[in-house]
Amino acid sequence: MNRFLPSSRCLLLCVLLALPGLRSGYAQQTNDGSIYSRFGLGELRTFYSSQIQAMGGGGTGFPSFNAMNPSFNAMNLSNPASWGAQVLTRVSGGLFYENIQATDASDARSRLASGTFNGVHISFPLKSQTLGVGLAFVPFSRVSYRVAVEGTLPATDGLEEVPYVVNYKGNGGLQQIVGGFGWQINNHIAAGAAAHFIFGILEERRETRFASGAYQRADVANATRLAGITGTGGVLIRLPGVFRRQDALSVGLALTLPATLTGTRVRTLETSVEADTLGGELSGKVHLPYGLGFGVAYRPDLRWTFIADARYEPWSTFESDFTFPGYTPGGHSLQDRLRLSAGIEFLPAGRDLLASYFRRTAYRIGFYVDRSYASPLPEETIRTFALTGGLSLPTLNAGTRIDLNVELGTRGTTERGLIRDRFIRIGVNLNLGELWFVKRKLG
User: Fold this and answer.
1) Which of the chain's termini has less CB crowding within 10 Å, N or C?
2) How far apart are CA 91 and CA 119, in angstroms?
């Protein structure tokens, strides 16, 4: 007889019903994101788990499934090698709210706010603590910006000067569906592999408005549809009792293979009179670079966890048949990306499930530094510095937690006519874990 708890059934139904809406929502953004999402393929998004996100967003060496620690409660998407040591079936998903204050060199400021989803993760064991499966639907990049540039047409042929405004807008992004396996080979070594199907639409639009009726409005729009497949392989080495009897050190390595996305671009021109497609549909390819992640995690006891992570992606090797803001084939290229992060989790109660509520709450803090792969100027590097933190709240179900995350950071600079972003992100995530499909013994 199978055991399938009602709470799990309700959550899974909600997740499945939400997927179509989440997917379509990315094609209908409100343009309330960072101006830096305009460049390249958009702002790259990484969400490996809500636990890892509050600890700096790394996690390549983090063994997210640990029966001895109740706060290890979500699938770690950064390294499929960690998926093998599963006991419970887990479903996790969440949303986040982002508020951005953009400042230019003249100290002019604007505020933008938006909300979107972090992702949906599903994982379950094929053989408890030996072989596990991981599935996820998560964003890869996000394009969401709007900026206005004012100017004036000079007076000619007896006509006065005519002010105009050019509005640049972008929305959309790339998503990815991830699926793979993890194998806990023995108590010390684990390996895993996952496939990534990347797809989505990048939309950019330029709207020109004149103050005089003698000039027609002119809007030019590009819609680029891309899709392709890549893969990630990883290893995770656990070394218990390295410094103390009950401690645990783990080291992880994950390699994401280069990918080729095939795509089409449609360019349209809209005027006050009509809309027309310019040059028909263009076909081309986009070549993404590999990604290499390395991480270390150390747990001196069941209360403390420390992680540190580094990820490198050589985007200077990026090639595309299409032109993107910040990239021109044979001209302006992208830059290599480097992301460094570290974090701490403190669970006062350790494994004591009968301790008080606040002692069973996990407290997390971290930071990261991200050198962006795209920039408005070839010789200028855009960097992001951020602090992260969060709480993991226990529920009546020992395998289920509610995570509250916060991220405070700054990106870019006001020098050389650029924009500096100050942002805050607040996330809410539900991580559910239960035993599913367990046969009851009769007799």
Assistant:
1) C
2) 11
